[in-house]
Amino acid sequence: MAYTTINKFKDHFNTNIYTGNGSNSRSITGVGFQPDWIWIKNRAVTQSHFVFDAVRGVSKAIFPDSTAGESTQSTTMQGFGADGMTVGTDVASNGNGNGIVSWNWKANGAGSANTDGDINSTVSVNQTAGFSIVKYTGNGSNDQRIGHGLGARPVTWFIKNLSRAEDWIVYHQGIASNWYDDSYFYLNTTDRSMGSVSAGTGNPTTSVFYIGSSDKTGKSGDSYIAYVFAEKSGYSRFGSYWGNGNNDGPMVYTGFAPAWVLQKEIIEVRDWTIADNVREVFNPNNNRLVPNETAVEVENNAIDLLSHGFKIRQNQTNTNEAGKRYIYWAFGQSIVGTNNKPNTAK
In angstroms, what CA-CA distances link 249 with 141, 243, 257? Predict the structure, then answer.
């Protein structure tokens, strides 16, 4: 049995779906906490993914499918609430009659100063869930150390330059033994990076992670945001698996019932994919959204979300090509919590 200190994963992560009505200052509730990182996608129209967080502030958007820097989107996001958010009239968050999904993570509000690294950062951290939002300004040197506040070694993070158009940089422990061995991707494209200037040359510690001198991660004077994660037993797992090219695909053990899964093939030019247990309640989970595209939701990403992991149910190059390796990010609910009471999976 898998045990966890997180007895209710919905205190830290939750998927919320609703139908837009086009009205201004609309309150969206049902998240269960104040979301400090919100990722929104209109499922019904061709439209960018939008990301907001409490450290940068209300209405400050960045876009997983785009290189664009930060922009003000006051008709998209208008407030962070105790149980959700307030949205405006924009089609991205409230298109009339459109199905909208928001994926929501809890950190710790607007954050506070962190001086652990070479560069001072502003950190909003949820140590229980292993998640922090980190804002910093680059200094242009290699091996810049940035404080993350987790008190545990992070194993994956996403970085975006807010000041200019640059690719998103994504690190994941499942790629290489060292972070700087070509070990990152671009969230906004199908490609894998083949360089190392963005990464720095140090492995992360319980207090800092490293970045390089690239404009994508550490240009002098530019502002950056990073979403940083450490694994927590029974709640989050960031691993890899090998595809078999069969509709009876690999079974991936996580130790909990995944509620949200992000996947990416590590070598080939392949799309990212996201599945969750709210847009599609029953298995097989077919509803696919693609972070690197503005595309609408489609049904071609069959996986089963199970009580202890997920199983691929389709011969599909984005998730299950024979002999190819895939990395994943998963959040969900453990089988048994610290109170020894079962956490019932769907």
Answer: 44, 7, 18
